[in-house]
């Protein structure tokens, strides 16, 4: 017999903490305190295997939370607007790895420049677009209301479109090619329930 108390504490944020305490039996003592015995009786489900998307979404959400905590002046999630999301996206640009040529650069519009140039590195449009999609879902999964979702704000959509167009020109890349030939816009009915959470 090797008594092992296992406490599974589930927080409301969906993050599961495991505390595994191994108790060595001394003198046959049978006093094992189990403060959360109620949890074991319900035989809670094993922790879900998270997909890459889910893992990335959680990381993104943590990054954004970190950003809010470091924000000056302090900024809470409930007061977060589309303008703050744009601020966040611009902040991320300093960690970007995609060369985006300025208009004065001789390589402007060249997908494969023959030489280095001092143009800035930015976050690629595709990365930002996917990021916003994940954060938008995470916001609602963490209790945010769809109608106040700052990641779905019009300003954010417009900004992403602008980044897409300007990077497309600067890098000489057509983003249209990557898309499937299904130019069907989402029906207006689908817009009333965007918080499905499923992206696949
Ligand atoms: Zn350049």
Automatic annotation (TrEMBL):
<keyword id="KW-0805">Transcription regulation</keyword>
<dbReference type="Pfam" id="PF04852">
    <property type="entry name" value="ALOG_dom"/>
</dbReference>
<dbReference type="InterPro" id="IPR040222">
    <property type="entry name" value="ALOG"/>
</dbReference>
<keyword id="KW-0539">Nucleus</keyword>
<feature type="compositionally biased region" description="Low complexity">
    <location>
        <begin position="29"/>
        <end position="44"/>
    </location>
</feature>
<keyword id="KW-0238">DNA-binding</keyword>
<keyword id="KW-0217">Developmental protein</keyword>
<feature type="domain" description="ALOG">
    <location>
        <begin position="52"/>
        <end position="179"/>
    </location>
</feature>
<feature type="region of interest" description="Disordered">
    <location>
        <begin position="29"/>
        <end position="56"/>
    </location>
</feature>
<dbReference type="InterPro" id="IPR006936">
    <property type="entry name" value="ALOG_dom"/>
</dbReference>
<comment type="similarity">
    <text>Belongs to the plant homeotic and developmental regulators ALOG protein family.</text>
</comment>
<feature type="compositionally biased region" description="Low complexity">
    <location>
        <begin position="190"/>
        <end position="200"/>
    </location>
</feature>
<feature type="region of interest" description="Disordered">
    <location>
        <begin position="165"/>
        <end position="200"/>
    </location>
</feature>
<keyword id="KW-0804">Transcription</keyword>
<protein>
    <recommendedName>
        <fullName>ALOG domain-containing protein</fullName>
    </recommendedName>
</protein>
